[in-house]
Amino acid sequence: MVAQRGSPWGLRCLFLCLAVQFALEAAAEYFKPFNVSYDHRALIIDGKRRMLVSAGIHYPRATPEMWPDLIAKSKEGGVDVIQTYAFWSGHEPVRGQYNFEGRYDIVKFANLVGASGLYLHLRIGPYVCAEWNFGGFPVWLRDIPGIEFRTNNALFKEEMQRFVKKMVDLMQEEELLSWQGGPIIMLQIENEYGNIEGQFGQKGKEYIKWAAEMALGLGAGVPWVMCKQVDAPGSIIDACNGYYCDGYKPNSYNKPTMWTEDWDGWYASWGGRLPHRPVEDLAFAVARFYQRGGSFQNYYMYFGGTNFGRTSGGPFYITSYDYDAPIDEYGLLSEPKWGHLKDLHAAIKLCEPALVAADSPNYIKLGPKQEAHVYRMNSHTEGLNITSYGSQISCSAFLANIDEHKAASVTFLGQKYNLPPWSVSILPDCRNVVYNTAKVGAQTSIKTVEFDLPLYSGISSQQQFITKNDDLFITKSWMTVKEPVGVWSENNFTVQGILEHLNVTKDQSDYLWHITRIFVSEDDISFWEKNNISAAVSIDSMRDVLRVFVNGQLTGSVIGHWVKVEQPVKFLKGYNDLVLLTQTVGLQNYGAFLEKDGAGFRGQIKLTGFKNGDIDFSKLLWTYQVGLKGEFLKIYTIEENEKASWAELSPDDDPSTFIWYKTYFDSPAGTDPVALDLGSMGKGQAWVNGHHIGRYWTLVAPEDGCPEICDYRGAYDSDKCSFNCGKPTQTLYHVPRSWLQSSSNLLVILEETGGNPFDISIKLRSAGVLCAQVSESHYPPVQKWFNPDSVDEKITVNDLTPEMHLQCQDGFTISSIEFASYGTPQGSCQKFSMGNCHATNSSSIVSKSCLGKNSCSVEISNISFGGDPCRGVVKTLAVEARCRSSSDVGLSQF
Ligand SMILES: *[C@@H]1O[C@H](CO)[C@@H](O)[C@H](O)[C@H]1NC(C)=O
Ligand SMILES: *[C@@H]1O[C@H](CO)[C@@H](O)[C@H](O)[C@H]1NC(C)=O
Ligand SMILES: *[C@@H]1O[C@H](CO)[C@@H](O)[C@H](O)[C@H]1NC(C)=O
Ligand SMILES: *[C@@H]1O[C@H](CO)[C@@H](O)[C@H](O)[C@H]1NC(C)=O
Ligand SMILES: *[C@@H]1O[C@H](CO)[C@@H](O)[C@H](O)[C@H]1NC(C)=O
Ligand SMILES: *[C@@H]1O[C@H](CO)[C@@H](O)[C@H](O)[C@H]1NC(C)=O
Ligand SMILES: *[C@@H]1O[C@H](CO)[C@@H](O)[C@H](O)[C@H]1NC(C)=O
């Protein structure tokens, strides 16, 4: 949807807007004002120690229209806190001109978090890394003469302080701090500075001391953290980031153990594999953290989202920031990750009274690689109001088996327990296991992408093209216009020598044209022929993409991060136009000295192979042109797209380089997330109704390096369970629903290397297939234990039978049971088969409970399945179900 001044949200979200508006006008106070402090054990919120689970969600990686649902799904998943960075480059795109609108409306985001009853951890940085362009720094920062980032440099400190103060003041003005009744319980200054501090020597130490004092001096009235900063000064809490943080100890006994980034997945690069972290290992890491004294853990990311526009960092990070997070890029639950963690959070909550009551756990060695940590109320905790938790539980325990291979049988307080390898069992009452990290009871969901939609050209061509039968799939059509190679505007200039790329572009565009003329004599030609050689562009070092054009033709491309270039070029006799196009694909976001990193070329840059010696490029006159013509004319917007002379594209036309395409499409009906499939294209950028959906690139991941089986056991690293080998890293690109109107959506594509736009399609993403597998030996559902509404109703273990839960996404119901077997079923989701033991009526019994419902539960017991199908055998129920939209999915009405 095109933003219109005055009503930026349009009618689509009328209900939502009203709800949000109401929340905003009711001026904060989501909580009774409360203070936040801490001791060595935990954050103390309103006088109470708390065990907190936090969900990382970066507001600009979703649309404001998505925020309420993401926050609601986080809350339903059992988290207490939402964590986000503040994105300086988005908030101050031009020095002194602030932007808090749209995806950068951080006040609205914070209000939504507060309105949902969750807390907020705001990490101001302002360096944030985050796989975000330039680590979140505005690119103008590097143009301040004499500035050095993240060190004791007066110019940098002044800019940093101004932004940090701006953010703290804004939060205070909007009454978003805890003591004002707002959701903010904690802030962060700097980010993982410990990783690079050594490179700055004494000035680094001085800087971090200054940063701490500056932050504390702003009077925010809530604690501050520094992550990966073992020397965090004074009252700033040093926190851990990593795949595991259970061994972490802060630098003072007075500070609690916090885990600001639990890497539950990883990011991906163009041409790379996709990472996957199995939830059994993730749950193990989290349980171990609380087991060994941790008190605050944040999933980085709980929802990763999308790097819209040119916000992706890098170089070479893809547009999707899905991160293999519990909520996927499109805002759908990623199962079983979300569900298994929800069960874990409920189990930890059951233990919270004992965890906060104890000053430290009692350690019991149970075996060579098995251990227990027991939390009991003790004499040191008299100052805290334990009874206010309304629970009788006074002893909770975690039993861990850190053996990577073998299960173990252990005896704990006189009872026997079986512990699967690499797992933790949680015993909220020190007797009954309610959860084991390796036993996944949560359903699996398989995301389906379906539904190709037709694209058509011409804004009022509905009648012409759209019919209600299948013919509509062949009515796709496209308009096209060529992007000029080289100079296209008065804004070109000519100087001697090669300029640094970012110094010229200021990152207003990925592209910088360098244009010169090369004279080739008769002698050169015969010299090349005689020696069977050609001239070559030779560059010591280049990033990220170089394209070489000779006499208007693209003759070579080089891709890499500071790589050597030897690009042969074929010249004609006389004057030749030589055009070098340098491109960035996300600015560096990690490391020291970012201000010096730059882009384009470094070192010696020359043309080799000439009879009279090399031609030094630094001695030539070069004409420079920033960006692409279509980009600067904004021909991707509804208002400006007619500025280009579009012509009809024929399917017989050869693929062309540096070319624009446009078409129109209607929105698919319903609420399923929408994706653009650009798998048929090369490299470029795409816009829908003027919204920049990001860079695309169809680079393919290596054929090898994806394991056949992902074994959750043992320490995780980002390569361990990667998948998608031999396929393009990304082909689907999220188009947020709120950017669409019901019909005639303008899609504009800039293609650099050639592709087939006729194969571009619109797809819908939904969790169409559900699977679950729960055995008799599984624990009763934690949710039943965790029943804060009925504290008085004492639930005993014997009342509880294991259950299977199936749930479709909102607005969907279970439409069929594809497989159901109570007995000894084999295989995994979409590959289930019956075993020797099978209750004949399995399918009809599951169907009876589930068909036509959004969610259902089935008890795993002999009685439910009409008797015992095989005595003396532990039985399992495996189910595969299909979800369907309650209102049939289809095209919008024409
Ligand atoms: C928070 O602490 C401040 C300073 O100690 C105190 O004045 C204020 O009353 C406290 N507020 C609450 C809600 O406890
Ligand atoms: C402890 O908390 C409970 C419930 O919130 C409250 O009723 C009780 O007065 C508190 N006790 C003390 C000593 O503050
Ligand atoms: C490039 O700049 C020169 C000098 O300003 C100008 O004369 C020329 O018209 C420009 N080229 C284009 C294509 O606008
Ligand atoms: C970029 O510009 C700055 C200031 O104009 C200058 O100091 C610096 O040397 C330039 N960088 C390069 C690599 O030319
Ligand atoms: C010229 O060089 C190319 C490769 O550089 C080679 O393939 C070709 O055979 C050579 N031709 C002659 C005539 O030597
Ligand atoms: C099913 O029945 C068998 C006896 O046939 C019994 O051993 C087992 O405990 C029963 N299981 C459940 C879950 O009721
Ligand atoms: C299975 O279902 C049929 C028909 O509903 C019923 O007659 C039969 O008793 C059932 N069998 C068992 C073992 O429950």
Automatic annotation (TrEMBL):
The catalysed reaction is: Hydrolysis of terminal non-reducing beta-D-galactose residues in beta-D-galactosides
UniProt GO molecular function: beta-galactosidase activity; carbohydrate binding
Q: Which UniProt keywords apply?
A: Apoplast, Glycoprotein, Glycosidase, Hydrolase, Secreted, Signal
Q: What is its EC number?
A: 3.2.1.23
Compartments, record wording: Secreted, Extracellular space, Apoplast
- Specify the superkingdom: Eukaryota
| Cited CDD domains | Gal_Rha_Lectin_BGal
Full protein name: Beta-galactosidase
Its lineage reads: Eukaryota, Viridiplantae, Streptophyta, Embryophyta, Tracheophyta
This chain is encoded by the gene named PcGAL3
